[in-house]
Design a protein that fits this description.
alpha/beta, binds adenosine-5'-diphosphate, binds magnesium ion, RNA helicase
């Protein structure tokens, strides 16, 4: 649904930044991990959408990204494909405090995706499970308005890619159940909606917790349907030497 593949190559694409990697045209390895390519094939995605064509090489190339594209343009794959692919290749990161007495309570995900609502994080989680099939990556989802005890028990079984709403994630950080010190990929999806819903303080707090430049060398990706002033400011604060990608007509 959502994607019209007919006039696909007519969609205007704007890319700017330093040393922009060349877009991919197919879901074939490289740069994508062979297991991920198998999982994409199983899901019957035959070719990448314009957002995915650009975002995959930008992210696998180690760059930060600000991507603007309308709803239904395939932004979820745009971040999940390169993040999962690189995660498959690198394997789990060592846990920094593994010797601490109570450290087994705490989980150290290597990828974090934030989105504004329960519905959106649940959708992203479902896709993540599908594309992480048969890999070492265990996705988890947390959101407010649901039993936190159950979410904590689930995280306890393993949490490599965490999909979260900002408020519930802040709760779990305060309870010491999650550490963001291992985060290698930080994704803000529907960034404009998160700001509209008043999540900016929680987001800034969480991004600070991911800031371990010497330890994890984090990459940050922002996705948004629109590009208003407050999103531009957030991009300026969170992203380093980023590539700006805009697909289709994008409002501000
Ligand atoms: P957005 O986040 O930009 O609104 P989604 O990532 O939710 O878009 O994708 C919209 C729909 O298109 C979903 O149903 C998704 O499964 C499907 N889709 C995404 N990428 C592809 C692709 N490369 N080939 C076929 N369908 C796709
Ligand atoms: Mg989306």
């Amino acid at each position: 649904s959502g994607i019209n593949f007919d006039n696909y190559d007519d969609i205007p694409v704007e890319v700017s930044g330093n040393d922009i990697p060349e877009a991919i045209t197919q879901f074939t390895a490289p740069p994508l991990d062979p297991l991920l390519v198998e999982n994409i094939t199983l899901s019957r995605f035959t070719k990448p959408t314009p957002v995915q064509k650009y975002s995959v090489p930008i992210v696998t190339g180690g760059r930060d990204l600000m991507a603007c594209a309308q709803t239904g343009s395939g932004k979820t794959g745009g971040f999940l494909f390169p993040v999962l692919s690189e995660s498959f290749k690198s394997g789990p990161a060592p846990i920094p405090e593994a010797t601490g007495t109570f450290s087994s309570y705490k989980k150290y995900p290597t990828a974090l995706v934030m989105a504004p609502t329960r519905e959106l994080v649940s959708q992203i989680y479902d896709e993540a499970k599908k594309f992480a099939y048969r890999s070492w990556v265990r996705p988890c989802v947390v959101y407010g308005g649901a039993d936190i005890g159950e979410q904590i028990r689930n995280i306890g079984k393993g949490c490599d890619l965490l999909v979260a709403t900002p408020g519930r994630l802040k709760d779990l950080l305060e309870r010491g159940r999650i550490s963001l010190s291992n985060i290698k990929y930080l994704v803000l999806d529907e960034a404009d909606r998160m700001l509209d819903m008043g999540f900016e303080p929680q987001i800034r707090h969480i991004v600070q917790e991911c800031d371990m430049p010497d330890v994890n060398n984090r990459q940050t990706l922002m996705f948004s349907a629109t590009f208003p002033r407050d999103i531009q400011l957030l991009a300026h604060d969170f992203l380093k030497d980023y590539v700006f990608l805009s697909v289709g007509r994008v409002g501000s």
